[in-house]
Amino acid sequence: MFLFNKQKYTELSDNELLQIYRKTGKQKIIAELFNRYAHLIFGVCLKYSNKNNICEDVVIQIFETVMEYAKKSEIKFLKSWLYTVTRNECFKQNKLFEKLEYNDQINEDVVDDEKEETISDKKLKDAINQLKTEQKKCIELFYFDELSYSQIAEKIGHDVKKVKSNIQNGKRNLSIILKKERDEIVQ
């Protein structure tokens, strides 16, 4: 058995650390991974959001996710996995890429006093409603209900690859719909 001291942690590979963490649940192991990758996660986050406070929150959220996920599942390529999880978390934090920058272009007042929705929120919801049913459901579950790919797959009865595809295609289609509406407003 390994002696759990800092010197031993630094000598172990990511996969070795994750295996030990899965067996022991010792948070000191996650701390070592945090030391290795926090700056990279922060940098990836800055790529998707230039707001430091969001990025700091994302770094913490990512390591909470690592702690939960690594307890029950094997992460084979930690660095790639962290990049993907970070990117997805940034999208969630930015509420669908800062609502695809739509809010910055349309600063309208509250439309519905009762629900306090802005016009841009309503436009986003209308655009989401134009998506294919499976894309719409996956987008809503991922961004608004904040479910993971596997949770969505289980809930709607599809495999994870189909869920990822629906989310990716839904985001692309949503971007196209909102760009078209934005172009119509400009003209």
Based on secondary structure, the structural category is: mainly alpha
Cα separation of the termini:
69 Å
Number of strands: 2
Using the coordinates shown, work out and report the CATH topology of the largest domain: Rna Polymerase Sigma Factor, Chain: A
Overall CATH architecture of the largest domain: Orthogonal Bundle
Helical element count? Answer: 11
Helix content: over 70%
CATH uppermost class of the largest domain: Mainly Alpha
Instruction: Report strand %.
Output: under 5%
How many structural domains in the coordinates?
2
**What's the overall geometry?**
globular
Task: Kindly provide the radius of gyration, computed on alpha-carbon positions and rounded to a whole number of angstroms.
Answer: 20 Å
The H/E string reads: HHHHHHHEEHHHH
How is the largest sheet built, in terms of strand order?
A: 1-2
Question: CATH homologous superfamily of the largest domain?
Answer: RNA polymerase sigma factor, region 2, helix turn helix motif
Report the uncertain regions.
100-117
Structure explained in plain terms:
The structure is a single chain. This protein is mostly helical and 187 residues long. Helix content is 77%, strand content 3%. It has 2 domains: 1-93, Rna Polymerase Sigma Factor, Chain: A; 96-187, Arc Repressor Mutant, subunit A (Orthogonal Bundle). A hairpin with a 4-residue loop joins strand 1 and strand 2. The chain has a two-stranded antiparallel ribbon.
Set down the secondary structure blueprint.
Blueprint: H1 6-11, H2 14-24, H3 27-48, H4 52-72, H5 78-93, H6 95-100, H7 102-105, E1 110-112, E2 117-118, H8 119-129, H9 133-144, H10 149-156, H11 160-186
Antiparallel strand pairs: 1-2
